[in-house]
């Protein structure tokens, strides 16, 4: 008889305030999920529209070794050019061109502004905006915006 009492005692909680909760309905389950999903989706859309996602990705990906990776360097320079207000066109309209024959201590990155696919300007034409001189070894940047051929320092981050 004591074995039957123990089995019965395990099945139902005992003590003050220890009653079983009623099961959630399907409607409650869906509402709780929506209360989490909708704000997260709205925050992701806001971050994408404000440009926070590319900046966050750049902070994570662009490290000391990325200076020698031309793909990461050009993406970093696109963000930097846009953030510093050197160009007032969308990022997708800026085309960086790296001269592969340059040495690592004086790499020239020429920035062109294209005028196709919804970019401002005369269709089919590209214009040279400025050149950035990159010293990959010292991790320094210089640009000639506003004064072609005369380079002045610009912050790297």
Automatic annotation (TrEMBL):
The chain crosses the membrane at residues 30-52. Keywords: Membrane, Transmembrane, Transmembrane helix. It comes from the Bacteria. Residues 1-23 are annotated as: Disordered. This is Uncharacterized protein. It comes from Candidatus Kirkpatrickella diaphorinae.
């Amino acid at each position: 008889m004591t074995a039957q009492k123990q089995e019965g005692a395990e099945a139902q909680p005992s003590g003050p305030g220890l009653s079983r909760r009623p099961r959630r309905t399907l409607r409650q389950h869906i509402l709780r999920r929506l209360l989490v999903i909708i704000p997260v989706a709205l925050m992701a859309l806001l971050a994408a529209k404000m440009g926070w996602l590319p900046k966050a990705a750049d902070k994570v990906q662009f490290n000391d070794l990325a200076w020698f990776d031309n793909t990461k360097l050009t993406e970093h320079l696109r963000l930097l050019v846009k953030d510093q207000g050197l160009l007032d066109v969308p990022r997708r309209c800026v085309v960086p061109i790296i001269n592969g024959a340059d040495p690592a201590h004086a790499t020239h990155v020429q920035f062109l502004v294209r005028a196709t696919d919804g970019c401002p300007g005369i269709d089919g034409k590209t214009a040279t905006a400025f050149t950035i001189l990159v010293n990959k070894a010292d991790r320094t940047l210089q640009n000639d915006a506003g004064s072609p051929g005369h380079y002045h320092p610009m912050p790297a981050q």
